[in-house]
Design brief:
- With 121 residues, this protein is of the alpha+beta class.
- The protein has helices at 31-44, 47-58, 66-69, 76-88, 109-117; strands at 64-65, 92-97, 100-105.
- It has a 3-stranded antiparallel β-sheet with strand order 1-3-2.
- Strand 2 and strand 3 (100-105) form a beta hairpin.
Length: 121
């Protein structure tokens, strides 16, 4: 049976870009900043993870169910492993809804990574 009750979901506010690290042209990176950025780039250095990240980032709704992005040529447990690595690196956030998990690109991550590599800064 279905529940006719309507539940209102909160509206996420778009967050301002908060760079995690100073641009590389601003001076030498601290050890902590270098480790944080290296973990993000390392997570994206795997082709399967990069494809999964791309699928989430380009999904029309701004979020993607694992059921919609899992067809990347590897088994489901391997997809779960790679998504876990992307979450651990801070690149994705996730939310469980029933039996499915929905993924979103972490707020301002792409812009922060881009700002860090901006040579014009």
């Amino acid at each position: 049976m279905s529940n006719p009750e309507v539940v209102e979901l909160p509206v996420l506010q778009e967050q301002a870009v908060v760079p995690c690290c100073p641009p590389i042209t601003a001076g030498e990176l601290s050890q902590a900043d270098a480790e944080k950025m290296a973990a993000m780039f390392k997570a994206l250095s795997d082709p399967v993870r990069l494809r999964l990240f791309s699928r989430v980032a380009s999904h029309p709704d701004g979020e993607a169910c694992v059921c919609d992005i899992a067809d990347v040529g590897v088994s489901q447990p391997t997809v779960s492993h790679h998504l876990k690595k992307l979450r651990a690196a801070g690149l994705l956030t996730s939310e469980r809804r029933g039996t499915w998990v929905y993924y979103q690109v972490a707020p301002s991550v792409v812009a922060a990574m881009s700002a860090m590599l901006d040579l014009r800064a």
